[in-house]
Structure formats: structure tokens, C-alpha cells
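Technical note accompanying the year-one report. For the benefit of new consortium partners, we illustrate the data format agreed upon in the data management plan: each record pairs a sequence with a C-alpha cell string. No post-processing was applied to the example shown here.
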Amino acid sequence: MKRFWIFRGLKVLVITTVAVTLFGYVVMSLWNWVVPAVTGFHSVTFVQAVALLVLSRILFGGLRGQGGGWHWRHRLRDRWEQMTPEQRERFQGFLGPRHSCHTAQEPHRPASEDAK
């Protein structure tokens, strides 16, 4: 069992290293091909290109994992639908008046349920 986790960890490490190297090289090549010719900025090294990748991920992609990070909304909606009216009222009281925009409305239903 322990060997499986070691091999899996090594596989993830190798794939991550190859991906970072490949994307870093692509960013460095594109930057050095386009940006100095267009703007007059200096060329970047491989390490600077990887740093640009990390910076762009932080600024534009966030730090969340795979899947976009919106799965919590579906879980919250499922829990909301299973709550009794008293539990819903208590939960809304816990959130406060800023988060009570859906108090008078029905919970959102997918379009497939409306067609039935």
C-alpha cells in the first residue's frame, strides 16, 4: 500500500515538473519573440517566465484547485432544499440581512424540472 502512494507521488511530481518546464519555456519563447519587438522591454529568463506564470495564476486564475471552485454552491443548494422552514429562517438569521436576497423566492430549480 505504501509503495502505491510513493509511485503516485513520484508520478505527480514528474508530471508537474514537465508541465512547469514546458509552460515556462513557451512563455519565455513567446515573451522574447513578441514583447521586445513591440514594446522595447528586455527579454526574460526561464526563471522569470515561470515567475510570470505563477503571478498570472495568482492574479487571474486564483489559488483554487481544479474544477473552478463553484461546487460549494451546489452543496449549499442541496442542503437548503433539505432544510425545514424553521432551519432556513435560523440560517438566514445567522447570515444577517445582507445575505437574505432569496427569502421570498423559491429555491432555484434546474430548467429540466420546470419542463415536467
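Partners are asked to follow this layout when depositing records. The longest helix spans residues 2-39.
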